[in-house]
Design a protein that fits this description.
This protein is α/β, with parallel strands linked by helices. It is about 20% helix and about 35% strand. Strand 10 and strand 11 form a beta hairpin.
Length: about 160
């Protein structure tokens, strides 16, 4: 049995990246990401892998790419979405935008960090239709560097 979730941080305009990197750095968001994904499988595209540059500790790291890539021994390369769908357990899709779009139809949970500020972004979180999702009552907010971050969890209706 598998459970697919998407986890993403977005700014006020649903921007999530700039030139292959996160346009912000918030330790509270990184700690939240770690808490949610640790002990589970994280699936990312090639560009996200390249931006992170190393396996995330205490997680089963999977890169989804049609390209052949030289990866560390403890990182799995899968070539198509069906291979990911054959995995078991809790699976977290961690980016980028094309990977998110491919997995939206299979996703049951969304973990969205809303960063209540505008940043310069060239990559956006697309395909999120709020009407298809129910917001959990587990909404947590914090302020870091004078910016409000809201951690939201959604369930598919």
């Amino acid at each position: 049995m598998r459970n697919i979730s998407i986890i993403v941080a977005v700014d006020a305009k649903y921007g999530m990246g700039y030139k292959g990197k996160l346009p912000w750095h918030f330790s509270s968001d990184l700690k939240h990401f770690k808490k949610i994904t640790e002990g589970h499988t994280v699936v990312m595209g090639r560009k996200t892998w390249e931006s992170i540059g190393k396996p995330l500790p205490n997680r089963n790291n999977v890169v989804l790419s049609k390209q052949n890539m030289l990866l560390p021994q403890n990182v799995t390369l899968l070539k198509n979405i069906e291979d990911v769908l054959d995995l078991h357990g809790d699976i977290f899709i961690i980016g980028g935008s094309e990977i998110y779009k491919q997995f939206f139809p299979y996703t049951k949970h969304l973990y969205i960090t809303s960063i209540e500020e505008n940043y310069e972004c060239d990559t956006f979180f697309e395909g999120f239709n709020r009407n298809e999702w129910m917001l959990s009552d587990k909404v947590i907010s914090t302020v870091e560097n004078n910016v409000l971050l809201i951690f939201k969890e959604f369930f598919r209706k």
